[in-house]
Amino acid sequence: AWATNLETGEPVSxxxxxxxxxxxxxxxxxxxDASGFARFDYEPGGPYLxxxxxxxxxxxTTGFGxxxxxxxxxxxxxxLGISTxxxxxxxxxxxxxxxxPIYRPGDTVYYKGIVRDTNFGRYTLPDIQELEIxxxxxxxxxxxxxxxxxxxxxxxxxxxxxxxxxxxxMPLGTYSFNITGDYWLSSRSFTVAEYRAPExxxxxxxxxxxxxxxxxxxxxxxxxxxxxxxxEGLDVHWTTYQAEYTPDFEGxxxxxxxxxxxxxxxxxxxxxxxxxxxxxxxxxxxTDNAGNAVIPIPADLLDEVEAGSRVITxxxxxxxxxxxxxxGRATINYHAGEVYAGLxxxxxxxxxxxxxxTEVVTVDWSGKPVANQNVEVVYYxxxxxxxxxxxxxxxxxxxxxxxxxxxxxxxxxxxxGEAVTSFVPESGGxxxxxxxxxxxxxxxxxxxxxFWSVDESFAGWRTDPNQRTMDLKPDKTExxxxxxxxxxxxxxxxxxxxxxxxxxxxxxxDQQVVTVNGSQILEIPITADYAPNVHVTVAAVKPVNRDxxxxxxxxxxxGFVELVVPPxxxxxxxxxxxxxxxxxxxxxxxxxxxxxxxAGNPVQSEVSLALVDLAVLLLKEDNAPHIxxxxxxxxxxxxxxxxGLLVTGEGMAIEEPLPGGGLGGGGGGEAALDSMRLEGEDxxxxxxxxxxxxxxxxxxxxxxxxxxVEVPLPDNVTTWRMHSKAATTDTRVGQNSADILxxxxxxITPVTPRVFTAG
Length: 759
Description:
This protein is mainly beta. About 5% of the residues lie in helices and about 45% in strands. The longest helix has 8 residues. The N and C termini lie far apart (about 80 Å).
């Protein structure tokens, strides 16, 4: 809790506070320190963070005040792009994975779990030695549904492994391995299906991956059997989608080559064109004797699409003789011009009245410098107009930008495609630099970048009084240990006010009282402990000001920002090298595995190895996330901030409540094979077919980070994928994969229709 005097805005020390649960039960007392902070030892009840009340003194006495964590008003961090979770962190986390994502009834599921005690992105070996695991359907499948429960034992590295044989009559559907108890994050799903694995792989290859808008091209769709050889005479259905193209060229980190400042502002909407963009066109074709279908892309493909560079996603679905669909996709970049202009301010935050210098580069589509290009750079001051509207049954604030030109300069890039432009902002606020370059054909390409001018007297930032929010602007999108984050606090209060600065990841890492004055820069040194992320909250409190005729009342603004710090210190490099790229069925394949850290030093770790038919993996994506993401994905914000100032109506425009309250591989087996066996050919008949050729849950690399394995291949003719995941006891993790081909010089494959007529 943080206590401030509403008359002066100063922190209150020595104030006796009492904590109550939501039901009114007393839960503790504390006294504020010199910063006005008080800390309670508190164990949440049933629903986590269900709400507490803090009261100072008695009603009617000097120093009386009260606040509840449920008094959040319309302050919702998720609206500002902050991931939140109001539930408690689970005591343990198990990264469970299986040898493959899909099985047939009767198959054996090989599984592994890496178990750790949790501490908001910092893991330790668990104290527990046994866990109860259940296998249950994800959805109720009616009478005769399957479920099972068994115990697993953890070894000294916090790992459990095993195998689970699916019943022959297991109902089809999606199932999960779950730890008994409230450990839903540790669940891992797998699919049970009478599947038919695809026999071919579909690749999509454009003749050119980069074109000018208005140029035609061809796209080749190829279907190749996984055991090698072309798939002829198959039906192809293709579709194209378009979306905005955002170039990002290696060698120019931090440069903007697109409208990153959102100069061409488009309001946020819940409805979009899907993952691949908006539909453009579709058609049909047939593969030739080389397994190819060549699709012409006409010059007028984007004639009805808005101006600017666009990216086309070309998706092709190939259906075999058994009508089994397999898809592939590729992208084509359609450029608005032959040259791009990139912008990068030397500082994203500058004091008003000081010069800001912006680097300009001109490059071609591959990112190579283009010399002697004229670039026009226009500077705008961005203001915002707001109105209250009803969207999706909720009252919300709609913002419209108002951009005023405040400067213009034309520069010419040198032999290295570089130039510099400068500008002096006269006042505080948000500024946008817009660069336009025109190529030899008269075609224009535009890019933009934002920067901010700091002026202690400026308080005209975009801030929503209905939500009591303000923006926090970091000077970078991610940070590394040893750097200092500079965060611009866009306070709407022209006077200096006290603010509560909190840095947290699950628990509070640091807190202090800071002063913000219209435009304030907060510097936060970044340490390795901040990986993978921390959340920064600034709550600024304006005291009563009876001399202000517009708003004499006390007020509050709260800003949130997430600082991302890549977890490089936990990332392992896993390299898998096959002994050969091609084998015959029944051969013994060899694989060498090397594990190193980010500096290239060998790491002794335990690794799992799974060799699986790629045809099966094409049916379902990996059912486990990347192991680094699983352990070190950015943590959600877990705290809730409440204040009486967030719910007071003093000075606010009256809004009537909205009606309704708003929205808050088997089959047949050996017996069937025996009935079809040819006399005299027994020794040459392939009969050992597997979807998983090899599984080893735990292999230990040596002091050089190396381990080698030999794998007898089954009789499948296919592409095999070896996948490995590595982990150490201090939870450094990594994964990788490698493919080999198992084939014969001649393949005959039977094709049956999907439907027979009885008799």
